[in-house]
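INTERNAL AUDIT FORM
Audit reference: QA-55
Scope: verify that the stored structure record matches its stored sequence.
Auditor: D.O.
Record contents follow.
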Amino acid sequence: MPPVRSDDGCGFDKAVVLTALKTPDRGTIRLSSPVTVSCEFAALFSEWGVSDASAIAGRIFGSPISVINTGPGYQCRRRNNQPDGKLSEHALGKAVDISGFQTLSGQQVSVETDWSSDTASGKFLKEVHASACQRFTTVLGPDADPNHKSHFHLDTGCHGKDCTYLICQ
């Protein structure tokens, strides 16, 4: 799609609307809501969703992921929806929020409900969160702060002078 632009400093080039992730067997993992993100972010998110998250679901539940429950991708706003401060990575097409997953067999997993549980769903979420920390520069979950109690925030923002600082909470 055309570049995304806003007068507020938001926007990015090479935008795509992501609705599903293609799997190696020519299947798909559907996103519950389409997300507009940069091509670069879409590629990384797709790789993580297929190679990591769905594989973890297959190992723990015996069934791969069929749906990722997504919140916003692009959204022109400041961090944590505050009126001032730095732009959120959502405003630059470099972030997505995830509230849960569904497997092909119908297993529902909710970040808000299952994160702290000592169940297969809780174990799945902990492993998926850890795998995201290996690919994204920022991963925020329920233990990060009250703003993220119901979802994972994944982004590829630059942290530190040389962009090598990682945030995994």
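Auditor finding: record pair retrieved intact. The chain has a mean pLDDT of 93.
Action required: none
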